[in-house]
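HUMAN: Now follow token order:
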Amino acid sequence: MEHGGIRHRRLWLTVLTLGWVFVLGAIVWAASVLAKGSLEPQDTAGVIGLVVGTMSLVAAVAALRRRAGQEADPEAAAARLRHRVRVAEGRQWRQLLGGDRIFIDLRYDARPSSARSAGPPAGFTGRLSEVTADFLALGDRRLVITGGPGAGKTVLALALILGLTEENRTGLPVPVRLSLSGWDPRVDFEEWLIERLVQDFDREPQVARDLVEQRRVLPVLDGLDEMDDIDDPCVQVETSRARAAVERIDQYQDGAKGLPLVVTCRTEWYERLERIGQGIPDALRVEIRPVAADQARAYLADRLPEAQDRWSGVLRSLGEATGSGQFLARAMSTPWRLTLAVTAFAERGDPGDLLLYNDPGALDEDLLRRYIPAATRLHPSRRCRYRADEVHHWLRQLALYAHRQESSGASPGLTPHQLWPLAGRRRVRAVDAGLTTLVILAGAAVLLVRTGAGLDERHLPAAAGTAALVLVLLLRASNDRVPAPQGGKLRRIRTPDGRRLLAHRLRGAAVLVLAIIVVQWVASGLVAVIIAVLAAGLVLSLASELAAGTGERQTHGSHPRQLLRDDINSGLSFSALFSLSFGTVVGYSGDYIVGAGAGVVGGLACGMVWWSGAGRRYFAFLLCAWTRRLVPWRLVRFLDWAYGAGLLRVSGSAYQFRHQELHAWLLRHPVPPGD
């Protein structure tokens, strides 16, 4: 079990939850005994001492947990992070290579272009296979990787990351790849880096801060050009997010020296930034060369040894310097198009059709037309069979959503719990509010059956309090803003966003406490009210600490599918905890059936309605989207499959389209083109 990892934290979460439940039981028992007023002074002191001792024991265990997290060895923490990065990026490397390990040894040239840029070091090789040595030879170890669309910028960055994470290089900072598309440059770069280590790499906040402050992390910032819609002529480089990001990145330094980092960006956009003096200072810029014809021919021959006959015409033409061979060599000059061609003609079709084109746009259109059907055949799902037309339709709906997000200036990433506007904002919010009503009424049915025959004016305050609670929950369920998923991860309260979310949760908890006070005042009088306030305050504070997460700007989890799973688990845990405490307090009056019913109502309302907002909204979205056939019912399973098939990629806590060309093609084709 990894120290500080999710399983380690869940173990502590279980231990602390059981401890605080025991404390709650002790408080309720002590209050019931003291309310009878028949104890001797020494017995009263013993009861109070038992409660204080129980609370002290749980607090000591919590302090031990905090101390264990803070005293983690920095070297060991860096080694664990290095191993995690190597495993994750190794999978991403294989996925970008089309499910294979054969790669093109890309060439790149040093392009110092300003007085502040660095020159190439001695022994500079300019080869992907030697990129780690080239980087380590740089004095400041600051590198900018540029190239055209599909040139292999991310592949080169991954090769560098995997080279730096080799076991014999453990003394180096740990390279961590981060997607710049989701960063708001108004947030301090170092604070954002710490938060990303917490969210995307499952590090504890204090461990993440120690790693960053001790300069044990090498940021690999992927996609500077993806921060803005660079294809929109209205986007000005002077007011772009990328320009603001460069200014923030320049502040990342140690004393008077800029810290090592790596940035990837499209050539045209980076050159526009440089023309206004906003390049990355003191960094060597390298430009990836187009893939040469002999490299493309060697790659295809190595990748397709069993299909030499089918590809013989293409391989022969790539060796010619005139006619169709010359055009094909230019067309196959990017790793993306080579991988696309291999996938498109993997099982069906004649690769010789590639020789019929003399227009790059027409060639891309044909390859993309074949791509989704080929990927569907090559990667059959083990649990359900996807048809190519279904995959096309679902991906197009996601492409439309990503395009709308990008047009509004938001991140185009496909994070499952944020996809709900795809099915219509008003429709999903209405269904969400309707589901909330059904959940509360289903729980309230127990109370109505029990007390329906004996309702009188004494129950009016309780009914009014319950109605007010239902109204607040309905307003929350129909809100346009959905909280970020809660993961039940300890210690997130140390982050600024975590503290803001805690304050928000406690404001909401005040409504619930008032509802409990109203119920108990009618049922049992002042003593029960005091018990209710103490119990509710304890439970809500505990739940806020356990499930405190980051604000709506950020998400957490090392993989997108983990977000909703953690959120639902958090909601269920809080439901059970609140049901136990609320039911016990209400049942103190003697009617335990009413107490059980109140616990169910309170648990469902406060756990799955109040707490697990992201999971509930996602379920409402699936109901709306599935009935309209916009996305499959098992959406996250489909997204995982599309990632494995090479149609999508994972960036941080969101899915993205594998390449911008595929995204644009889906926008142009509402239905699959015929063969």
